[in-house]
Amino acid sequence: MEKFWNILGVEKTEDEELVKSAYREKLVNVNPEDDPEGFKELRKAYEDAIIHIQEFKKEKTFTEFDDLDDIGKWMKKVEEAYFNFPDRISLDKWRELLSDDICIGLDTVETVQEKLLAFFMDNYYLPHKVWALINERFDITEDREKLYEKFPKNFIDFVCNSIIYEDFLDFYLFEGPELGEYDDYIKRYFKVKDMLDYNELEGIEKEIEIMRSNAIYHPYEEVEVVRHHLKSGKDKHAEEIIIELGNKYPNCDYIILYVGEVSFQIGEISRAKEYYEKLLEKTPNHYSAKLGLGKCFLAEKEYLKAKELFIDMQYVFYGDQNALNEMMKANEYLIESYKEQLDEEPNDFETLIELGWCLYQNHKFDDTINILEGADIPEDKKALYNNLMGRTYLSNNNYEKAYPFCWHG
Length: 409
Hints:
The protein has helices at residues 3-8, 16-27, 36-61, 70-83, 85-88, 91-98, 109-120, 128-138, 144-148, 153-164, 182-197, 204-212, 220-231, 235-248, 253-265, 269-282, 287-299, 303-316, 321-344, 349-361, 365-372, 382-395, 399-408. It is mainly alpha-helical. It has 4 domains: 3-61, Helix Hairpins, CATH 1.10.287; 66-168; 189-328, Serine Threonine Protein Phosphatase 5, Tetratricopeptide repeat (Alpha Horseshoe); 342-408, Serine Threonine Protein Phosphatase 5, Tetratricopeptide repeat (Alpha Horseshoe), CATH 1.25.40. Helix 14 packs antiparallel against helix 15 (253-265). It is flat and about 90 Å long.
């Protein structure tokens, strides 16, 4: 009997859940800090057992080609490619598969398209680049309406979105056995991520433990651990993990974002700005990076810069409430600053108008009217004045007073 079964304390089995359960039970009594060698031995035994089971299943489940027709034989090749992860994500492998005559022949292409999509209904974790190759061969996006008649609409929409949009999860960062349970890992990963996204933290430690007990590794799992540390007030632990990840994966957007987020939360504003700006150089309208950079400007008392960025966000991400709230925070500081300037220079019309816009944007319509009504406006600035006054009266539901300003604005 292989040594890894003895270490795990189970008989030889094909049940992966039994192996995972045995591993978790043993893990409780093995602290990696107190017994690093024992932890490594247990982890290695778990990984070896999983690989052994998966290789056995592959030998057992793949049907002999002699019993299949040409399309069936091709589908078995697809199945083998999908469950061998390096092949699953290999563009060369999919080019080879898609160059088969049955993917081109007029008498077979439609049948192959349907059988392939039927397979993908249960096995759908593929890189965007692979989906795009499949679409080039089978015109899935072009056939979208027709495919609605044969498959569930939400499934076809998912496939089309996978073809059109880049992946969130970088499939090329995975580490693990070729025949690993990658779909199970990905489902576990997104369960953890969703719990953190929606702040559903009850049982999160257990879910993280289950995710990390897999023989498969993806660096995004570390990001979710970082996010959990942040929510738990363990900022120092979060910083240690994310800085190491940022150094190891300097071009990974999700990791770079959280170097910025963690840095901002612990008050390292300069470093946070550096990482947000790095993301924005690559993706100028990266939502979270823009929001984070604006918050950095607020923290550095660069209120006008912050406001301008948040206004830009409201054009790009129409009506975004987060950007609106942050802009209003910037305005509160600007309001006090403009009032002080006007105390010193009461006839500074440009400052008066800027103050008026801040008050208007913060829904302080009566205050806006009070500071602007009856002001001595230079002739060449009246259009600006009329625009702001008209908007303010309209927002205050005073249509009678709004009318002349709108007419002349």
